[in-house]
Design brief:
- There is one protein chain.
- This protein is an all-alpha fold.
- It is elongated and about 70 Å long.
- The relative contact order is 0.06.
């Protein structure tokens, strides 16, 4: 039981050392991630559409 208690105390001690982002940083990072995901989604959708049309052309 002592090991488990020490484990959770160590977790609490380490969490106090963490440098959490400020609200404006978090907002900026979130916007960056969402826009990057959207750009990649559009890119892969266009590539998928192009490959699908190419395969249909070959098979017809």
């Amino acid at each position: 039981m002592q090991r488990i208690t020490n484990f959770f105390r160590d977790i609490a001690r380490e969490m106090r050392k963490v440098s959490w982002p400020k609200k404006d940083e978090l907002t900026r990072y979130t916007i960056t991630v969402i826009s990057t995901v959207a750009i990649f989604a559009v890119f892969f959708a266009v590539v998928d559409l192009g490959i699908s049309k190419l395969i249909r052309l070959i098979l017809e």
